[in-house]
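It is worth pausing here to work through a concrete case rather than discussing structure prediction in the abstract. The textbook approach is simple: state the sequence, then state the predicted structure, then interpret. We follow exactly that order.
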Amino acid sequence: MADAIVPHFANDAGAPVVHVGVKEFMCIGANAPFDHPHVFLDMGSDSEKVCPYCSTLYKYDSSLKATETKPAGCLAKVNAAAA
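Step two, the predicted structure:
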């Protein structure tokens, strides 16, 4: 059983870079109904990762909490039963 819920991020605004406070997360592209398959991304020892579906560039920012993003508002609203 997982100890924590993996945050899901969406880039509805089409920002060129989304800064996140975690290195393991799910990218859903945009909020439903415009989402793509929910893909797990792991930065590992790197500080950035590109989503292979939507090409959003995610950059790790240690000053952010797991639920915070820059620009603000990229934390996705996902139905827990569907995730």
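Step three, interpretation. The chain has one domain: 8-70. The beta strands are 8-10, 17-20, 24-29, 39-42, 48-50, 57-60, 69-70.
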